[in-house]
Amino acid sequence: MSVPLRSLALSAPRDADSNHGNVKVFVRVRPFLTRETEKNTRCLVSMSETSVTLSPEEKSISSLEQTPKAGAPSVFHFDRALWSFDERDGFVDQQKAYHLVGEEYLQHTLEGYNTCILAYGQTGSGKSYTMMGDSANGLIPLICQHLFRQTSQMRRNQVSCTVRVSYFEIYNEQVRDLLCDDSYAGLRVRESPSEGPYVENLSEFTVNGYNDIEKYFAIGNKQRSTALTKMNNQSSRSHAVFTLSVKQVKFSESGDEIILEKNSKLRLVDLAGSERASATGTSGVRLKEGSNINKSLSTLGRVISILSANSTSQKNTMVPYRDSTLTWILKESLGGNSKTAMIACIAPTDYEETLSTLRYADSAKRITTVATQKISNVHIKVKMEDKMVLDDKDFEITALQQEILGLQQVLQRQGEKEGEETALLGMYRAKLQVLKRSAEYFEDRMIMTSFRNEMLHERNQGLTLQLDGYDKNFASLMRDVTSVGHTMTSLDRELGELKVRSVEFSDSLQRDLAAFSPEAVFE
């Protein structure tokens, strides 16, 4: 019986593998910037494999602070310290950063866990370089490249993998879709009992390879809010969240039955930089941006502090997730169903800002999350469509996606407010949900049909090779038969000649015997 794959989401997960674990914290120090080198600035940071030592600047120790501990270095311990200051022993480049951080969380994602990697630090500390990259790819591109390498190998094990991407920013406490040209900063955040907070009407696109990722990545980065400040020539003025939704479907050997499904999300977050107005030299609009950035990061700090305290004691203090858009969206990643890592990016200079970042990260490492694999054990027979039907559904999906986009734009232009939806907007919203479900259903069917067709194609190739082998063997046998025939003909000819010779010999022998007489012997 044919069953819509989407209904599997309602299936109870199998024996869930719940994992209690702490947020992993990594600290990465960047090299000197040109302006810092020109000023002969001293590096205040040193690292071992798992520790970070911060030495204070001489000017930071006032005469009023001359205590036995004044001027003493501050030492912090983390899961891993990433030394990217200079290329001496232990230097961590982009590839090694992926190996130490990204590889593990990609693997967790493919195991069916929700995961999150977020980069935190002051403006100009190297967060965007770590996450996005520049001349060398950062974590996000490298994770995506390795993801598609693994999905191509999954087909050998009868697994079909679908990847969808979304990309949005939180700018001045408003959510803006970075993959929609007509999007405005005002998408609403809602909360689902099963999935937690999500961005309503956020566009999501299916990608078939890394080239598709690059395309959407470029579109989103072009629209992201950045600006020039004293601390950074291209300062991110928003928090950016790039999400990979990964769906894996395991088929039976015959390809006509679904036996397992995994659903997971990998959330990659590039936070805007913490900053002081005096240090960044901002005013007007930029000052307002900085104020909102600091508000959300301050709330994030309170959330981390409370979660840390709740994890290390018997306290159960209410966590103020909803005090900022950022913390509300990151609710599950910080204190819920997720395996989460924080990369605290620090500058080798600026004692106060770096110390603040390290204290922030030190609190985060105490947070405990409970990650659960989202795996459904199912045994569903799938009725596959032929190629003509597949093409029809592909066309229908495209049409539905266009209509969904149109409806999203209508909803945005209405400027709707909480509790003031008109009957028309309600109708649009209901139709939008129906269209989304229909598109998802047809896309699932298309994936299954495509997978089935690939399997049949592979089997057909195998049979063709077998037939080619049989043809070669038959031709060889025919050559052998022909050769045997020639041999038999030759033997027949030789046998005939032997018979003739035998008759001649017999006649000759009889003549000789007739000519022989006993009298001749005694003469």
Automatic annotation (TrEMBL):
Recorded GO CC terms: microtubule
Binding-site positions, ATP: 121-128
Domain Kinesin motor: start-end pairs: 22-367
GO MF annotation terms: ATP binding; microtubule binding; microtubule motor activity
Record carries keyword Nucleotide-binding: yes
UniProt-listed Pfam families: Kinesin
Keyword Repeat: no
Domain of life: Eukaryota
A GO biological process held by the record: microtubule-based movement
InterPro entries the UniProt entry points to: Kinesin_motor_CS, Kinesin_motor_dom, Kinesin_motor_dom_sf, P-loop_NTPase
PROSITE patterns assigned: KINESIN_MOTOR_1, KINESIN_MOTOR_2
Record keywords: ATP-binding, Microtubule, Motor protein, Nucleotide-binding
UniProt record similarity statement: Belongs to the TRAFAC class myosin-kinesin ATPase superfamily. Kinesin family.
Name of the protein in question: Kinesin-like protein
Organism listed in the record: Babjeviella inositovora NRRL Y-12698
